[in-house]
Write a structure and sequence with these properties.
Layout: E1 6-9, H1 13-24, E2 29-32, H2 36-55, H3 61-69, E3 71-74, E4 85-88, H4 94-107, E5 113-116, H5 123-127, E6 136-141, E7 150-154, H6 161-173, E8 177-181, H7 189-205, H8 210-220, H9 226-233, H10 249-255, E9 269-271, E10 274-276
Parallel strand pairs: 1-2, 1-4, 2-3, 4-5, 5-6, 7-8
Antiparallel strand pairs: 6-7, 9-10
Length: 282
C-alpha cells in the first residue's frame, strides 16, 4: 500500500521520535496531541533535537528547518482522515488505545494502515475496537525512536499480508531494521529485557549499587545499563498508581514522581541528560 502521508498520535518522547523518522526521509507528518501545551512541548522537543544535530554538523540548519516544517501539529483526530499510515503512540493502557482505534475506525480513509506502538499489550484486542482488523498492525519503535534501529513489526491474527509487506518495506525506507514478530507478552525485545531487568533489580535489592550494575553491563558491550535505560524510556511506562507495588523499586520511584530523565530524576538524578548519583535511590 502506498505511504506518502503519516499521522502520529501522541507527542511525547516516542511520538516525537517516530515523527522525526518520517521527516528525515521527506514524508509529511501530522502530530496529534490532546491539548495545546502538550503539543507545543512535543514540537519544541523535536525542534531542539534537530537544532542539536545541526549544531554538531550532522545536518545543515536548512535541512533541520525543512524537517521541522514537515511535522505539523493538531488537536483534531479528524486531521488524520487522509493519512496513509497512522501510528498511535500514547500511554500504555489498553482502554485508552482501544478508544483511539475505535475513533480512527470512523475517521481513517479506506486502505489506511492503523498501527500501534504498544510495547507489550495484546494487538488483537486493540484491533477488535475496529471493523478493519486486517489493516491493524503493531509498529513497536525502541526509545529513542529517532535513533534506535530496531523496529518490531507485530502481526495480528487478522493482519493482511499486504499490510505486513508494506510495513516491512516502509521500515527500511525510514532506515530501521524490521523484525516480524507475533502477538505474545512483551513481543521479543521487551520479553528478553524483562528477565535482565529482574536480575538487575534483585542485585540492587541485595545491596549492589545501581551504578555498578550499569557500569558492568556497559563494559560488557551494551550502550547503557538497565537502570539508565529505564530512566531514558520513562519509568512510568505501563505504571499506574492504583496497581503500584511498594516492594518494587521502579514503582516506589514512580510514587515519588521520579519518572526518569524526562522528569529530571529516576534511578539517577539528572543534569540535563547526564545521570548523577542519587542519595534517595542509594
Amino acid at each position: 500500500r502506498p505511504i506518502s502521508t503519516v499521522g502520529v498520535i501522541g507527542g511525547g518522547l516516542m511520538g516525537g521520535g517516530i515523527s522525526m523518522n518520517m521527516a528525515n526521509v521527506g514524508i509529511p507528518v501530522t502530530l496529534i496531541e490532546t491539548n495545546e501545551k502538550a503539543l507545543e512541548k512535543g514540537l519544541e522537543t523535536i525542534r531542539k533535537n534537530y537544532e542539536s544535530s545541526a549544531s554538531k554538523g550532522r545536518i545543515s540548519f536548512d535541512v533541520a528547518k525543512q524537517r521541522c516544517e514537515l511535522i505539523q501539529g493538531s488537536l483534531d483526530l479528524g486531521d488524520l482522515s487522509d493519512c496513509d499510515l497512522i501510528i498511535e503512540a500514547v500511554f500504555e493502557e489498553m482502554s485508552t488505545k482501544k478508544n483511539i482505534f475505535s475513533s480512527l475506525d470512523s475517521i481513517a480513509k479506506q486502505g489506511a494502515i492503523l498501527a500501534s506502538n504498544t510495547s507489550a499489550l495484546n494487538l488483537n484486542e486493540i484491533a477488535s475496537a475496529t471493523t478493519r482488523s486486517e489493516s491493524v498492525i503493531g509498529l513497536h519503535f525502541f526509545s529513542p525512536a529517532n535513533i534506535m534501529k530496531l523496529l518490531e513489526v507485530v502481526r495480528g491474527e487478522d493482519t493482511a499480508d499486504d499490510v505486513i509487506a508494506t510495513c516491512m518495506s516502509f521500515a527500511k525506507l525510514i532506515k530501521k531494521v524490521p523484525v516480524l514478530v507475533g502477538v505474545c507478552p512483551g513481543f521479543v525485545g521487551n520479553r528478553i529485557l524483562h528477565y535482565r531487568q529482574a536480575q538487575a533489580n534483585q542485585l540492587a535489592l541485595e545491596g549492589v549499587p545501581i551504578q555498578q550494575i550499569d557500569r558492568v553491563l556497559y563494559e560488557f558491550g551494551f550502550p547503557m545499563g538497565p537502570f539508565q535505560m529505564g530512566d531514558l524510556a520513562g519509568l512510568d511506562l505501563g505504571w499506574s498508581a492504583e496497581s503500584s507495588n511498594h516492594s518494587d523499586i521502579r514503582d516506589r520511584l514512580c510514587g515519588l514522581g521520579r519518572f526518569g530523565q524526562k522528569s529530571g530524576s529516576g534511578f539517577y538524578d539528572y543534569e540535563g541528560r547526564k545521570p548523577i548519583h542519587s542519595d534517595i535511590v542509594s
